[in-house]
Amino acid sequence: MRLAQVRGTVVSTVKDDSLMGVKLLLVQLIDESGVLQSDYEVAADVVGAGVGEWVLVSRGSGARQHQGYHQRPIDAAIIAIVDTVSLDSGPLYDKRQEGY
User: Whose CA is closest to 43, among 17, 68, 69?
Assistant: First the structure.
């Protein structure tokens, strides 16, 4: 799993039939210091995440383990909305705090 921040939505009117009804979000990966990386990815949202939220992204075959997704061509899925991240040195991210 990787930490990422939701940066936007992806809308596709023409797509594989198995992706009908799947919410797609654009996420930007976050490094161990909490800094946004230059990498972006499109992920299926199974938890109802919104723009600006920190999320956990499962990739590869693990992304297809969510109920109903095992037969879909999905390579990344948002599986959790992050509340806090802490390191030995202290909090890295806290959803309740301003500035994140």
Answer: 69
Burial 61-74 (b: 16+ CB within 10 A, else e): eebbebeebeebeb
Question: Of 64, 57, 62, which Cα lies nearest the Cα of 78?
Answer: 57
Q: Which three-class secondary structure state does DSSP give residue 17?
A: helix
| Burial of residue 8, with CB atoms counted within 10 A of its CB: 0-12 exposed, 13-18 middle, 19 or more buried | middle
Q: Is residue 99 assigned to a domain?
A: no
**CA–CA distance, 10 with 2 (Å, rounded to integer):** 20
Q: Which residue has the tokens 């693990």?
A: 62
pLDDT tens digits, residue range 84-96? 998 888 788 888 8
Q: Is position 69 within any domain?
A: yes
pTM of this prediction?
0.84
